[in-house]
TrEMBL record:
<dbReference type="GO" id="GO:0004493">
    <property type="term" value="F:methylmalonyl-CoA epimerase activity"/>
</dbReference>
<dbReference type="InterPro" id="IPR029068">
    <property type="entry name" value="Glyas_Bleomycin-R_OHBP_Dase"/>
</dbReference>
<dbReference type="GO" id="GO:0046872">
    <property type="term" value="F:metal ion binding"/>
</dbReference>
<protein>
    <submittedName>
        <fullName>VOC family protein</fullName>
    </submittedName>
</protein>
<dbReference type="InterPro" id="IPR037523">
    <property type="entry name" value="VOC_core"/>
</dbReference>
<dbReference type="GO" id="GO:0046491">
    <property type="term" value="P:L-methylmalonyl-CoA metabolic process"/>
</dbReference>
<dbReference type="InterPro" id="IPR004360">
    <property type="entry name" value="Glyas_Fos-R_dOase_dom"/>
</dbReference>
<keyword id="KW-0479">Metal-binding</keyword>
<feature type="domain" description="VOC">
    <location>
        <begin position="5"/>
        <end position="131"/>
    </location>
</feature>
<dbReference type="InterPro" id="IPR051785">
    <property type="entry name" value="MMCE/EMCE_epimerase"/>
</dbReference>
<dbReference type="Pfam" id="PF00903">
    <property type="entry name" value="Glyoxalase"/>
</dbReference>
Length: 133
């Protein structure tokens, strides 16, 4: 599988706005985007703040979008996943499943992309992302 780039780290926090203030004050983070669940009709709508910290994105969610949609059981606060961009998510997941890696969410459309999740040793979730045209 060819990874194009590291995309983001996702964290589940009780209050995304308060958490964002911490990152802004202590890590000089810039707010890239704010999302409000009540402003969307998507089943994956959540409250979130997207930050740029140094040269990487940090997503602060009140719950993971895939959790809000009922695709996974409720997750604890803290680390959610790493996200990586791939050219072909179906091909990547074909390789993963052939290697008997635990898949927690098969690739599914999420806005302008397809996302899917699998588990690495240590119960670490990894998201693969393919941008659709």
């Amino acid at each position: 599988m060819d990874l194009q780039s590291f995309f983001h780290v996702a964290l589940k926090v009780d209050d995304p706005d308060s958490a964002a203030e911490f990152y802004q004050a202590h890590l000089d983070a810039d707010v890239v985007e704010r999302r409000r669940a009540e402003e969307s009709d998507s089943e994956m709508a959540v409250d979130a703040v997207v930050l740029e910290v140094a040269d990487k994105l940090v997503y602060l969610f009140d719950q993971a979008p895939y959790e809000a949609a009922g695709l996974v059981d409720e997750l604890p606060t803290g680390f959610l996943h790493f996200g990586y961009i791939v050219d072909d998510i179906e091909d990547a997941f074909g390789t993963i499943t052939a290697d008997d890696v635990e898949v927690v969410m098969e690739p599914a459309r999420y806005g302008d992309k397809k996302i899917g999740f699998f588990v690495a040793p240590g119960d670490i979730r990894i998201e693969l992302i393919e941008y659709l045209e």
